[in-house]
Amino acid sequence: MFDTFSEDKVSILVVDDLASQHVVLRTVLEEPDQEVITVSSGREALKAVLQQDFAVILLDVNMPDMDGFETASMLRSYRRTASTPIIFLTAYVDDAEMARGYSLGAVDYISSPVVPEILSAKVRVFVQMHRMNRELRARAAQREELARAEAQRASADQARQRADFLAQVSHLLTRSLDVETTLSRILDTSVPALADVACVYLELDGEPCPRTSVRCGPAVRAQADPARGLTLETVAPLEPFVPFAKRTLGSAESLVCRDAGIFGWPSGDGAVDLKEIRFHPLLNGKERRAVIAFGAVHCDEDRQPAPVITEFVSRASIALDNAFLYSALRDEDRRKNEFLAMLAHELRNPLAPISNAVSVMKRSEPGDAKVASWATGIISNQLEHMVRIVDDLLDVSRIARGTVALQRKPLSLGVVIDRAIETSRPHFAARSQAFTHEGNQNDLIIEGDVVRLTQIVANLLNNASKFTPPGGHIILSTTFRNGVAVVTVTDNGEGIEPKLLPRVFDLFAQGNTALDRAQGGLGIGLTLARHLVELHGGSIRCWSGGRGKGSKFTVELPASVSQEKSPSAADILPLRRKHGARILVVDDSIASTESLKIFLEMHGHEVRCAHDGIAALSVARTFAPQVAILDIGLPGMNGYEIAKAFRADAALKDCLLIALSGYGQDDDRQKSHAAGIDHHLIKPADLPALVELISTGCVASGGDREDEGRPA
């Protein structure tokens, strides 16, 4: 087997204190393919063996300082020379010394002077053995290297196959954003590559989804036998997966069940015998949760390993989540389009009666007071409705941008409740609905914006009225517990579908979006209420027993109990002036100034008009107005500059300044405040509210038309 050996030189170590012995042994043993290294002491020998390997060591027994036996003992203690053959050289040998030498690991004794042929023959044997061992080690190393290379090639092939598999998975799962298609492809790609049977269990909003299904591989299908009544449903039933899938929901860890028969998988009756089932979480969101289960009939080394399964689950999770997000995006887009259609519908509705009223007035006899009264009533009501729609849209925009500014101050909850009830009472009367107010809230103090808090409660009351049929009953109750004011609005109306409850406060979410629905409205009142409640550090929730079983909305706000008797809404209203005020109206629109002048004069006020800033200041210095109503976007000097001029003039600095402008953003109001304007109202003005504001003659944010949110 070993007919050829390495041609590398082999080293022989000679340890002898006599130089003459070095010459003799080197002469006998040196050959082209082997060299003789000579040293004169045991210490030198120990150094030499640390530097290179030797095929055999020729060791003199009788040496000064460290004799041959001691040197041999030290050599055997070295790992490198523990098995190196040692031949003792000695001129005097007896049985005791020979026994001692063999006990120290000697392989032979040679008497000195040596016989060259005997020495050469014995050394040659050990040299050949050394070469054979070296060749064996070289071949073993070669085999190990070949094995490593083969293992690396196999590993590379497996890695390439896994990469190809995962690439195929990614390609298939990203080709569609349809939820059903994605679920089907997840199951198709997992069987039989990852499992013999696979199942996806899905819950939406906490309820099991009918999309749950099973996919079976060849090992399972082979056991189905329709002739014996063994269908895939009996061979691989779905039910045993469900309890363990539910255990995995909401967890980041996988669940492994082995020997499936012991945890509920049916045995007998034709059911396939599963050795293992693994449950992996796919989705762990609040609204959507899913688990995929892989069942194995037998252990298959060719099946993809755990890291590939983990990567597959990760990609499947992303694909399924993307599909649901796309579905949700489509739903949001659909609801947005429905909302825009509804907005167009709601804006057109008031225009029709306004147009009709104008047509009737054109055809009526001049001075017909009855027709004029009817027409102005129609136009006023419809205009108020349109303004309310625009106000709600502006509020939604501010909330979306996070620019809602609250005018916080301590106030009685009773003031908020009274104002909200007065706002909503016409809705109850129009639908012949009974209204009950329970609880005493006047001693509860909350920190907040009175206008926005009124808007919250009014929105809830109006929403209850909208979805309660004529003759229904609405209850508003207030309580206090653990530092929280609780306001509850309950009705016996239409109720809310269970599937809609989680989204009832979402923008554009309504149970019925038909254009001809009787309730009308944009469906954004509850969205506004939720955001305004949260801005006040409170919470809002909804409950309903379902369709036709009414609903209940509960608002909780931080509050405290006043130690003093809190005034009612009527108590805090300032006294009206007994006489009309001197009012200056400044607007570049002649139609606007003239119509507003006529309306104010009808309420007993003395009015002057100006159409630019220079004229306004000129009139003001002679007229000395008590109230100035300023448009902002004026030619030359704008409304802010006029206000600053008023405040800088000693004769005009105490004038009540009211901005009446089409600019209604928060920064516009801030500019008005900085210029010294007391109130910032949005066109078109609520004229009765404007008269009320002028009559009070005080600075009150409750009169701010911008802040008077209207319920949906």
TrEMBL record:
CDD domains for the chain: HATPase (cd00075), HisKA (cd00082), REC_2_DhkD-like (cd17580)
Modified residues (4-aspartylphosphate): 60, 631
Keywords associated with the record: Coiled coil, Kinase, Phosphoprotein, Transferase
GO MF annotation, one: phosphorelay sensor kinase activity
SMART domains recorded: HATPase_c, HisKA, REC
Transmembrane portions of the chain: none
Coiled-coil stretches noted in the UniProt entry, renumbered to this chain: 132-159
Record field: catalytic activity: ATP + protein L-histidine = ADP + protein N-phospho-L-histidine
EC number(s) from the headed UniProt entry: 2.7.13.3
Ranges for domain Response regulatory: 11-127, 582-698
Annotated ranges, domain Histidine kinase: 342-561
Name used for this protein in its record: histidine kinase
Source species taxonomy: Bacteria, Pseudomonadati, Pseudomonadota, Betaproteobacteria, Burkholderiales
